[in-house]
């Protein structure tokens, strides 16, 4: 999700929040959902993307395009409802936008339905009444299992190019997830940042978390932090082979994102 799309979605969520307090009719909710649908595709964690959202008979329907690698890894079948329950729980507890929206649904007794699509073919569907949604949001998911799954998925997509940086390896052990990143020293200010050292590079990432400017990175780091993993970055220059490394503790990550969430909350109070 781009920064521009993030800001649009944030504004839309805040609009939905204020408007839904007075939503009385099905037409009101159809208007809200149509506005949300205009922002698709919307990432849904490791599962895939929400590609369409509709409203019918007091129920919001999500059409979810499953990530093929994740579908294979999860071995979707008889356990798919529990898999998606875990994802809904993780999104509720980790994503401030989702939390605000789900709280609205529970308040207005709006039901949910998920239509799962794999390789352009519908494979199954399941519904969550608002009463069940409320129960789901009261129980935290197994973050460690989800974090390990996320790390394995990331490994399968390596190398990951991000401008002048390439993530070429990811390692996970008992308490640390390590990212090995090569820097193009000729095309990037990162070469200068490496000269300044790990403390400066670390502060840049924490500042990004506090401002929620990199939503995909924020959600992934939040998942690892909730699972109790430290994050270690090892940057290596492609010419000098000079390396800089630093670590983020779960406490540092959670405090930075909590700062961003409090700022978000104040914006609609």
3D architecture notes:
With 269 residues, this protein is an alpha+beta fold. It has two domains: 139 residues, GMP Synthetase, Chain A, domain 3 (2-Layer Sandwich), CATH 3.30.300; 118 residues, GMP Synthetase, Chain A, domain 3, CATH 3.30.300.250. It has eleven helices and ten strands. The strands form two sheets. The protein has a five-stranded mixed β-sheet. It has a five-stranded mixed β-sheet with strand order 6-7-8-9-10. The N terminus is likely disordered.
List the helices and strands and how they pair.
Elements: H1 3-20, H2 26-37, E1 42-44, E2 48-56, E3 59-66, H3 68-74, H4 80-94, H5 96-107, E4 111-118, E5 121-128, H6 130-136, H7 143-156, E6 160-162, E7 165-172, E8 176-183, H8 190-196, H9 198-211, H10 215-226, E9 230-237, E10 243-248, H11 250-268
Parallel strand pairs: 3-4, 8-9
Antiparallel strand pairs: 1-2, 2-3, 4-5, 6-7, 7-8, 9-10
**Overall geometric form:** elongated
Q: What is the averaged pLDDT score?
A: 79
Beta content? 25-35%
Helix-strand string? HHEEEHHHEEHHEEEHHHEEH
Determine Rg (CA atoms, Å). Answer: 20 Å
* Main beta-sheet strand count, sense and barrel state: 5 strands, mixed
In the CATH hierarchy, the architecture of the largest domain is: 2-Layer Sandwich
Helical coverage, percent range: 40-55%
- SS summary, helix count: 11
The first-level CATH class of the largest domain is given as: Alpha Beta
Low-confidence blocks of residues? 1-11
Q: Give the termini distance in whole angstroms.
A: 26 Å
**Which topology of the largest domain does CATH recognise?**
GMP Synthetase, Chain A, domain 3
Task: Give the tally of structural domains.
Answer: 2
């Amino acid at each position: 999700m781009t920064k521009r799309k993030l800001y649009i979605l944030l504004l839309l969520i805040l609009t939905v929040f204020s408007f839904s307090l007075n939503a009385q009719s099905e037409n009101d909710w159809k208007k809200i959902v149509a506005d949300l649908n205009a922002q698709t595709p919307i990432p849904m964690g490791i599962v895939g993307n929400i590609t369409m959202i509709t409203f019918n008979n007091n129920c919001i329907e999500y059409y979810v395009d499953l990530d093929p690698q994740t579908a294979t890894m999860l071995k979707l079948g008889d356990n798919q409802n529990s898999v998606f329950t875990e994802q809904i729980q993780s999104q509720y507890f980790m994503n401030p936008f989702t939390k605000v929206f789900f709280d609205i649904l529970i308040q207005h007794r709006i039901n949910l339905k998920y239509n799962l699509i794999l390789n352009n073919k519908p494979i199954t569907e399941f519904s969550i009444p608002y009463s069940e949604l409320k129960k789901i949001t009261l129980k935290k998911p197994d973050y460690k299992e989800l974090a390990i799954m996320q790390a394995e998925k990331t490994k399968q997509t390596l190398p990951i190019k991000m401008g002048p940086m390439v993530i070429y390896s990811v390692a996970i052990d008992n308490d640390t997830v390590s990212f090995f990143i090569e820097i193009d020293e000729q095309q990037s200010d990162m070469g200068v940042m490496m000269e300044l050292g790990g403390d400066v590079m670390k502060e840049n990432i924490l500042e990004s978390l506090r401002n929620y400017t990199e939503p995909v990175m924020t959600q992934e780091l939040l998942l690892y932090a909730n699972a109790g993993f430290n994050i270690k970055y090892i940057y290596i220059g492609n010419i000098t082979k000079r390396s800089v490394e630093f670590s983020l503790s779960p406490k540092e990550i959670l405090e930075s994102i909590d700062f961003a969430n409090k700022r978000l909350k104040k914006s609609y109070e």
